[in-house]
Structures are given as C-alpha cells and as structure tokens.
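Worked problem 6 (solution included).
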Amino acid sequence: MNGLDLSAFLRASENAVIADVRDTTLFKEGFIPGSIHIPLKAKQFAEWSTAVLDNTEPILIVSDPGAETAAIELLTTSGFTVAGWLAGGFDTYKDSGAPVDLIIDVEPDELMMDIPFDEHLVVMDVRKPIEFAEGHLKDAVNLPLNDLNDPLRIAAIEDHDNLYLHCGGGTRSVIAASVLKRQGVHNLRNVAGGWKKIKEEPKAQIVKEPGMLN
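Solution. The predicted structure is:
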C-alpha cells in the first residue's frame, strides 16, 4: 500500500473516516476538518479506536511520516479496513492552504470562573462511569467515549450549549472533541489537564456517587 497524494486522499475521504494518530498536542493545534483523533503512542490505542471508530467504514490515516505502518497494523488487528494514508502527513494538507480545524484549550481555573456566569455551560465528563462515580463536578454530564456515536445522546446537546470537555488527564477529551466536531458540534472547549487538575481547584464542587460503584 502506497501513500496517497492530497487530491487522492481527499477524494477517498468522501467515503471513509480520517483517523489522525499524531500526538495530541499537535492535533489540537491543527487537523483536517472531520478527522477523528486517536494518538498512536497511547497504550489504549486499540481500546479507544474500537470505542469511537466504525469498523464498517474504511479508515484513512494521517500520521507522522513513517508511523503509518504501525497505525495500519494496530487498526487492522482491531478489525478495521485501512484504505490508505496521506503521503507526507498533515504538513501536506496544511501546506496546500486548505481549511484547518483546531481544538481550543481552557485551564481548569477558567472553567471554575465561567461556571457561575454561563447558564448554557455544560461540563461533559468523558471518563468511564466508574471514574465518574468516584468523583465528578456538580451537574456534570457523563458521556463516555463508547457513547459518543449514540444518536440519542448527541441529540440531547442543544445548539446553545457551551461544552467544556474533560477526561482524566486530557487525551480522551480531545478524542471526544474530534468525534463531536465530526458530528457538527463545534461549540466546545477542552479542559487542559483533565480531572487531575480540576479536582485541585479550590472552587471545584465535587460530587461522589458511591451507589454507582456497586
């Protein structure tokens, strides 16, 4: 399998899903609109891929040059069909001048300042239910990665909602942001550092739900 030039890649993307497997920091700074982010170097790569990608759709890869072989191997092992990758990686796309999307970060202290003053603010916690039960922000909505492609869950997001996404450390929330953006939800922010940083905030109202742990 050879890398695709940009025009061939974009044509193929009309009937495929783009998986951008670069480092999360690089992805946030710019990506091809509609791409779903799953960082190749994460030990949970296979788990997260299965959670957010549809194995009935072919996958196109955007990676650091030279990393596509590892991505193809991991994805095919997980039951996905890889239709190709972008030769030259994301720089090939960016250098063409085509539109680029990005993920905006906010710090946990910014979230704490915004909560009392924004009636449309929704904290979306994308950790697993057991993590959520062990401690989460008051009024937060739990939407784990596995539920991100549930039409009913996505339909519950209102146009005026200002979504602040977080996970445990800051990676899953970027994955979630990319999935939501692909579905047309763009009014969102990523809380940098995730729950590890949020729970250190003095103003954080933390709720625990021990009943969910049984």
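Discussion: The mean pLDDT is 96.
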